[in-house]
Amino acid sequence: MPQLLQVPNQPILLPTCDKGGLKNTLSVSPERVIESRRIYDGRIVHLRVDTVSLSNQRTALREIVNTPGAVAIVPLTADGQVRLVRQYRSAVADYLLELPAGTLQPGEAPEAAAPRELAEETGDRAEHWRYLTRFHTMPGVCDETIHLYLATGLTQGATNRDPDEDIEVVTLPLARALEMSRSGEIRDAKTIVGLFLAAQVVG
Q1: What percent of the chain has pLDDT over 70?
Q2: pLDDT per residue over 145-201, tens digit each?
Q3: pLDDT at residue number 103
Q4: Contacts (Cβ under 8 Å, ≥6 apart) of 30
Q5: What is the SS3 assignment for 85-131?
Q6: 175/198 Cα distance (integer angstroms)
Q7: At 136, phi and psi to the nearest 5?
Q8: How far apart, in Å, are the Cα atoms of 148 and each of 39, 100, 113, 134, 198?
Q9: Is 165 a catalytic residue?
Q10: Which of 165, 168, 179, 185 is an active site residue?
């Protein structure tokens, strides 16, 4: 059974500016929610519109997409190959090359979701797991957090994809995937973040 690192549970320290410059402190919201209206409830995403009071006494509307969060995995073979998935993305009307990734199920911890998603999409099982980071994908409009893992010690097994997933597994040298990220051939943000962080870890 692979040993999974626990997701860090410490508060995130955000830089705030004072007269002395930048310092690390817990963020305090300058906005107060006056009204919140639920506009849409979908299978994965929910949309709400908040009316907020600003520190200058004015009000503003905030359109916010709520999601359950997600995981993404950098599966790296012993000879330095990375296992990616190629799939059509309707939102951008194009095929994208991406890391294996998926949405958290209700009540599911990221460290449980990562091996599940890796096995479902590529068929890979990993002996070793390393938690790389977590990040917000579109904080201007969306609360999604993606938890990023490095998976090594891979063995191949059967996939278990969702009925609506049409996925091609693509195996590339990590160095080549990094070149494709720099050139714009790989355009998915979580994939670019994951590839460069993994490259730092493995040297």
Answers
A1: 87
A2: 999 999 999 999 888 777 877 899 999 999 999 999 999 999 999 999 999 999 999
A3: 96
A4: 54, 55
A5: EEEEECCCCEEEEECCEEECCCCCCHHHHHHHHHHHHHCEEEEEEEE
A6: 11
A7: -90, 135
A8: 30, 10, 11, 6, 10
A9: yes
A10: 165
